[in-house]
Specification:
Blueprint (H helix, E strand, L loop, with lengths): L6 H4 L13 H9 L11 E2 L6 H5 L3 E5 L2 E7 L13 H9 L2 H7 L10 E8 L8 E11 L3 E10 L2 E11 L18
Antiparallel strand pairs: 1-2, 2-3, 3-5, 4-7, 5-6, 6-7
């Protein structure tokens, strides 16, 4: 307890600025008021698996000029108190760009590729309701390591720059959590 408040009252994201305890009804109400994803034409939902990835999404993908482009709508569940997309969500979105590299290297489409390193530079905010896209380049796919970079944009405005390194595992990803043959060329 700090200043007479419990942890539940200190974390008041869904309860607003009133210092009320966060409860499941408040979270359910927030999600019920969620804005529609309404992806641009050509985008289809991507399989992201369960757990945090399911909460992050849905994520969408579409081939653009022979490359896979991922996108998401910044919703209420993604924002900080300033109505901007939370940096942790931007980092998770950057991390999910591994799908792009799996698209460009077909032998990786079913591979388990855990993150080794992720570096992010925040350039400008993505605000509630904006469509965020990742423009990702596969820099190198070695035998055991994958290197890529992503520029996250809202329209032409740069939101973040990310550098990611993934380990190429010999294990297959769990069902429903890999690109598989979706968007196969």
């Amino acid at each position: 307890m700090r200043n007479g408040k419990t942890a539940a009252t200190l974390f008041d994201g869904a309860a607003g600025q009133r210092g009320e305890a966060l409860d499941t009804r408040a979270v359910a109400a927030m999600l019920a008021e969620e804005i529609a994803d309404d992806p641009p034409p050509g985008y289809a939902p991507l399989p992201t698996g369960t757990g945090f990835n399911a909460y992050l999404g849905p994520l969408y993908g579409r081939p653009v000029d022979g490359r896979l482009r991922l996108g998401m709508r910044v919703g209420r569940r993604h924002i900080n108190p300033h109505d901007s997309c939370h940096g942790g969500i931007l980092a998770a979105f950057a991390d999910m760009q591994v799908y792009v590299s799996q698209y460009e290297a077909p032998h990786l489409r079913h591979a388990l590729t855990p993150t080794v390193s992720l570096s992010l530079d925040f350039v400008s905010p993505a605000v509630l309701g904006e469509w965020l896209e990742g423009d990702t380049q596969l820099l190198r796919a070695g035998r055991t390591t994958l290197f890529q970079q992503t520029l996250g944009r809202v329209g032409e405005r740069l939101v973040f720059r990310a550098s990611c390194v993934y380990r190429i595992s010999s294990r297959k990803a769990p069902s429903g959590s890999a690109l598989g043959d979706m968007f196969a060329r």
